[in-house]
Amino acid sequence: MVTICVDAMGGDEEPKVVLDGIAAALAADADLSVLVAGNEEVVMPFAADHERARALVTTEVIGMGEHPADAVRQKKDSSIVRGCAAVRAGEAQGFFSAGSTGAIFAAATLGIGRIRGVKRPAVANPMPGASGRSTVFLDMGANADVRPEMIVQFAQMGRAFAKTTLGVEDPKVALLSNGTEDTKGSEAVVAEHEALAAAGAGWFVGNCEGTDILAGKFDVIVTDGFTGNVALKTLEGTAKFLLSQIRDAAHSSKKAGLGALMMKPSLKGVAKQLSGDAYGGAVLLGCKAPVLIGHGATSVEAVKNGTLATAHAVREDLVGRVAEELGA
Amino acid sequence: MVTICVDAMGGDEEPKVVLDGIAAALAADADLSVLVAGNEEVVMPFAADHERARALVTTEVIGMGEHPADAVRQKKDSSIVRGCAAVRAGEAQGFFSAGSTGAIFAAATLGIGRIRGVKRPAVANPMPGASGRSTVFLDMGANADVRPEMIVQFAQMGRAFAKTTLGVEDPKVALLSNGTEDTKGSEAVVAEHEALAAAGAGWFVGNCEGTDILAGKFDVIVTDGFTGNVALKTLEGTAKFLLSQIRDAAHSSKKAGLGALMMKPSLKGVAKQLSGDAYGGAVLLGCKAPVLIGHGATSVEAVKNGTLATAHAVREDLVGRVAEELGA
User: Fold this and answer.
1) CB-based contact B266 A274, cutoff 8 Å
2) Contact A48, A323 (CB under 8 A)
3) A231-247 burial string, b = 16+ CB within 10 Å, else e?
4) Pairwise CB contact (< 8 Å): A232 & B210
5) Is the link from the previous residue into A317 a cis peptide, with omega within 30 of 0?
6) Which of A60, A105, B107, B143 shows its CA 20 to 30 Å from the CA of B23?
7) Which residue in chain A is spatially nearest to B141 when comparing CA positions?
8) Å between A85 CA and nearest CA of chain B
9) A183 exposed, middle or buried (CB, 10 Å; 0-12, 13-18, 19+)?
10) Quick one: chain A helix, strand, coil %, rounded to 5?
11) Contact A34, A25 (CB under 8 A)
């Protein structure tokens, strides 16, 4: 039996969405039990109703807009801080929340602690790719300024995640740059390239470009947290823009409108591909337990998949694989 | 009469596509004449057939994959190098090419020369936005490492372009970062923010995120050439991925296929919006004449619009407006 702590208060949706997601995960996985963290009136009735659910009653909630480090310091009885503490104490083996990425990053780094030798944890996003091949994209975390040796660790942690989650035996890693040639990039990126070339003989395959993030060409694409954030947000903005344009186009003529109606189920599938719901969230790599971070605009299916994916990461020993990959 | 030099050898397509685009521009603008740079067999017959076209016979072509600075140094008789020289000599008032961005950047900086006081020219892309408002996005050029005072100049040049091209009276500028708060960003971006806040009282509105590039929220979004390249390539990759997914979805059922067929004209319009064909290209800001750079995968319409937009930039005195904005 694997126990996952799930934050019932995370995300922009009502706690009911999260609870329904947890219930769906429990129904799908008979070897799963859940520690549900949140306000008493939310978690107690749920625990009473579900055999494999226990309640972790907390009194505070960290909002999506709060300053992460300040919120984690001040709200000691929040579902995020207490959830991470419960993992540290061994009451659960992994943590899932659809709350603020920054707050989860801070709470997990402090509360669960880093794997020995990890300089900075990183946040990885599994991206869908043309041809069905997925790409692990990192860092999406708070690491806006990195040193070359941190990028090397991000690459190694990304490889461990690609092994456990995508089932790739020997994942190949590319460095995001503004051109594929070895000499392309800012001074910092050129230095990162050199460090990767030295450390990653056998798995570092060189520079790639923004067009490659969704192309399914590499198992892992690594970058600093600043560039990673800009790229992911640009991707989200582009998808939003295109889907809104398609909606507008559907209103441009009767024929187009009817066509859109007939395509609707398929278009929804496309939007879902990019939403991250299929996997359930981003993964925080480098802590002593698997931590998954769902999209704030979450759904029942996203919570279900995120909870199951956290349990899967525990069973596949993601933490052990990261430690091994880091050559610890 | 405005004369624009057009590179007949630029881009991945046959020269015929460029020539047809020039012919369409000449037909659309009776006050336009064109100096067509390229191989003799390409440009001579065209000049003979068109009253307001003259030939600039060159013998070399810079390929899309060549090292920009090396190619410009070595291929002195290429259409790009000779075209820029013709502009410097006063034979034309602006230059348009669908060739290699890096080569055009290098040839124009050396061959046409910078406006007094400009530290580094920058490449700006006019982006379509939700709600119809466009955003000037820069830098997309060779400036992977920038100093804060360069970002301030990019912002000022972007403002000049937004004034002449988008017709905005007092363009507002945002800085691309990994969050909207003033303190967000890498150390470099935080320093850029401070420089913009000091220089841009009245028009600098703070940080923005990747989701804003296509949101039509700001007149100008400024960033370094590394981040700008990653964002633009991510945008292209996302659009490509989504459109391919929609194509796949159309094949998933008969109904979806029929729906896609009915939506096809509208979907083409959506793809066009993002292709840059509507404006004709990116603009190189900071040189002593307007230089426009078309997408390598060009089209008759893109060349037509790019040539007309270059003439428009000459008539609107883009160069004078840039100089004025820089407080020269």
Assistant:
1) no
2) no
3) bbbbbbbbbbbbbebbe
4) yes
5) no
6) B107
7) A178
8) 28
9) exposed
10) 50, 15, 35
11) yes
Q: What is the pLDDT of residue B42?
A: 96
pLDDT tens profile A138-154: 998 779 999 999 999 99
Q: With CB atoms and an 8 Å threshold, state whether B260 touches A261.
A: no
Counted residue by residue, chain B has a size of: 328
Least confident of A157-171, B233-247, B299-313: B233-247
DSSP A27-70: HH-TTEEEEEEE-HHHHHHHHHH-TTEEEEE--B---TTS-HHH
Which residue of chain A is at minimal alpha-carbon distance from B132? A245
Q: How far apart are CA B228 and CA B292, in angstroms?
A: 17
Question: With an 8 Å Cβ cutoff, are B253 and A266 in contact?
Answer: yes
Out of B178, B234, B242, name the one closest to residue A144 (CB).
B178
Q: Answer yes or no: are the C-beta atoms of B189 and A229 closer than 8 Å.
A: no
Q: How far is B319 from chain A (nearest CA, A)?
A: 28
Q: Cα–Cα distance between B57 and B42 in angstroms, integer? A: 9
A267 closest CB neighbour out of B130, B249, B262: B249
Note the pLDDT tens digit of each residue in A268-306: 777 666 665 666 789 999 999 999 999 877 889 999 999
Given a contact cutoff of 8 angstroms between Cβ atoms, the answer to whether B291 and B112 are in contact is yes
Which ipTM value was assigned to this complex? 0.91
Residue with tokens 């461990």: A160
In chain A, whose CA is at the least distance from the CA of B257?
A263
**CA–CA min distance A39, chain B (Å):** 29
A300 contacts A24 by C-beta, under 8 angstroms:
yes
Q: Is A90 exposed, middle or buried (0-12, 13-18, 19+ CB in 10 A)?
A: exposed
CB atoms within 10 A of CB B23: 18
End-to-end CA distance of chain B: 28
